[in-house]
Amino acid sequence: MRQIDALKSPRFSQISTFARLPTCGDERPEAIFMGIPFDDATTYRPGARFGPMGVRDGSRLLRPYNPFQKVYPLDELNVCDGGDVDVIPGHIEETMERIEETLTEYMKRSTLFLVGGDHSITLPILRTVKRVHGKVNLIHFDSHYDFWDSHWGKKYDHGTWLRRSLEEGLLNRVIQIGIRGSLFSHEDVEDGKRLGISSFTIREVKLDLNRVIQEISTLKGPTYISFDIDVVDPAFAPGTGTPEVGGLSSFEALEIIRSLNVQLVGFDVVEISPPYDVSELTSMLGANIIYEAMSLKARLKNGETS
Ligand SMILES: [Mn+2]
Predict the structure, then answer these.
(1) Are 237 and 228 in contact (CB under 8 A)?
(2) Cα 78 from Cα 75, distance rounded (Å)
(3) 3-class DSSP assignment, residue 301
(4) Cβ atoms of 128 and 107 closer than 8 Å
C-alpha cells in the first residue's frame, strides 16, 4: 500500500501531504517533488531558501482528489519526494553545477515539480531540461522580466537567468505572464521585443485573458513552466522577496494553470519566502500551485485537453 493512502483519511495530520509522499527509490514515478533551497541570488528580501520547507508545510490541507481537473494527481502520477538538492550557500556557480548534476538522472525518468529557492535556480534547471529534452518553450509567470543582462555587474542572479537561458540557446518560444511594476528604463520593454519574447503585462492578462490563453495554445512541443510566486498580488502572497502590488489573485493564477494544454516537461515555483509570510498564505498557495500543475500533467496524460 502506498503511504499516500493515508491522505484519504479525513483526519488531518501534523505531517503535511507532500511530506507523506514516499521517498523516491528505484521506481519510475511519473512525477517527482523536489526542493532547491538556494536564495543567495536574491536582491531584496531573502528567505526563499525556506521555500521547500514552507511548501511542504503548506500542503497539509491538500486532499487526494482535484475536482476541477478531475484527477487524483499524486496517485495517478505515482509522485515521490526526491528531497532537496544539496546546494552550497553563498556560491551560486557551484550550486548551479550541483543542481544540474542532481536533477539530470531524476529528469530522465520523470517530470520534476520543483520548489525554490530564488529564481536563479531556473537557469540550471533549464540547462538540465535542454540536456534531457532538447530546446523547450517556456511559460514564465512573473511580475518581473528577469532578462536583465547583469545586476551590479554580475551575470548570475535572480533577475538575469532568462537572458542567460536565451544566450545559451536553451529555449524556443517564451511567453511571460503578469509583468508589472516600475522599471529601470523604457528600454527594458524594448529589450523583450528584441529578444523575441511575448510578454503579457498584468493589464493584458486582467483585461483580455482569452488572448493570452490563445497565444499559449499556439505553443507546440515540450514546454517548461516557471512560476514566480510574485506574479500573484502580495495581498494573496506576501511571503516573497521582491513584491509588486497589483497582481493576479490566487484564483486567477490557479485558473490559468487549469486552462493550459501543453506538453509539460517540468515545473517550478520560486521566490516563496516563509519568513515574510503571513498565516502561511504564500506557502499554502505555493503548495496548491504545485498540486494544480501536477493535476494538469495527470489530466493531459489521460488525454483530456480541457
Ligand atoms: Mn519576480
Answers:
(1) no
(2) 5
(3) helix
(4) yes
Please indicate, yes or no, if residue 94 is contained in any of the structural domains.
Answer: yes
Task: Answer yes or no: is 218 within a domain.
Answer: yes
What's the chain's Rg over C-alpha atoms? 18
* Structure confidence at residue 19 (pLDDT): 76
Q: What is the pLDDT of residue 259?
A: 94
pLDDT for 119 equals 98
In terms of pTM, does the model score above 0.85? yes
Q: Concatenate the DSSP letters of all residues of 127-187 into one string.
A: HHHHHHH-SEEEEEE-SS----S-BTTBS-STTTHHHHHHHTT-EEEEEEEEE-S--S-TH
For residue 291, give its domain range.
27-301
- Enumerate residues with CB within 5 Å of ligand 1 (an ion): 142, 144, 228, 230
Q: How far apart are CA 159 and CA 172, in angstroms?
A: 20
| pLDDT of amino acid 1 | 41
What are 113's strand-pairing partners?
A: 33, 267
For the domain that residue 159 is a member of, what is the CATH number? 3.40.800.10
**How many folded domains does the chain comprise?**
1
Distance 172 CA to ligand 1 centre (A): 21
Query: Residues in the chain with pLDDT < 70?
Result: 1-15, 304-306
Which grid coordinates are listed for 92?
551560486
Please count the CA atoms within 13 angstroms of the CA of 277 that sit on its side-chain side: 24
Q: How far is the CA of 144 from the centre of ligand 1 (A)?
A: 5
Residue 41 pLDDT: 96
Can you point out the beta strands (E) in the chain? Answer: 31-36, 80-84, 111-116, 136-141, 171-179, 198-201, 222-228, 263-270
